[in-house]
């Protein structure tokens, strides 16, 4: 799966350190996922806290995306791992879909690999702030 172009990633400075710590902590348990997150963070444009555009997915964002293979639309709220509850639509940033979505803008189209190793093309349809989330530790 060699995709030559990835959509730009924008990360708020106040979440960057915690995301890096999460990735480092996950290295022993899930090195592929941790490496994917670190790769995305390394290529990210880091903006000061509070200056991230509203159409960029961050912690606490409600993100609606479409699977271009199945045409299924889904909405999740990106959360820190301790706040995740997939049954309630709260996806951890430390999951394959969380890593894929964090920092992307509305309208971005990207390749995503499912937990079973299947490659899918996803399109970000909308991003909105979902409300309060727990503070960064």
TrEMBL record:
Task: Supply the alphabetized keyword list.
Answer: Kinase, Transferase
* Annotated GO MF terms: DNA binding; kinase activity; RNA polymerase binding
A Pfam family (short name) is Rnk_N
Residue ranges annotated for the Regulator of nucleoside diphosphate kinase N-terminal domain, each copy included: 7-46
Domain of life where this protein originates:
Bacteria
Domain named Transcription elongation factor GreA/GreB C-terminal: residues: 53-128
Q: Which InterPro entries match?
A: GreA/GreB_C_sf (IPR036953), Rnk_N (IPR029462), Tscrpt_elong_fac_GreA/B_C (IPR001437), Tscrpt_elong_fac_GreA/B_fam (IPR023459)
Name one process (GO BP) from the record. Answer: DNA-templated transcription elongation
PANTHER family hit by this protein: REGULATOR OF NUCLEOSIDE DIPHOSPHATE KINASE, TRANSCRIPTION ELONGATION FACTOR GREA
Please name the NCBIfam families in this protein's record: PRK05753.1 (NF004396)
Name the UniProt record assigns to this protein:
Nucleoside diphosphate kinase regulator
Source species: Paracoccus thiocyanatus
């Amino acid at each position: 799966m060699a995709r030559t172009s990835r959509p730009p990633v924008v990360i708020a400075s106040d979440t960057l350190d915690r995301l890096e710590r999460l990735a480092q902590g996950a290295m022993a348990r899930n090195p592929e996922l941790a490496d994917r997150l670190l790769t995305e963070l390394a290529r990210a444009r880091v903006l000061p806290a509070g200056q991230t555009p509203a159409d960029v997915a961050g912690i606490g964002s409600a993100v609606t995306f479409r699977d271009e293979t199945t045409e299924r639309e889904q909405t999740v709220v990106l959360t820190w791992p301790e706040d995740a509850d997939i049954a309630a639509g709260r996806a951890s940033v430390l999951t394959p879909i969380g890593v894929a979505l964090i920092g992307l803008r509305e309208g971005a189209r990207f390749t995503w690999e499912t937990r079973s190793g299947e490659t899918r093309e996803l399109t970000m349809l909308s991003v909105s702030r979902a409300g309060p989330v727990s503070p960064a530790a």
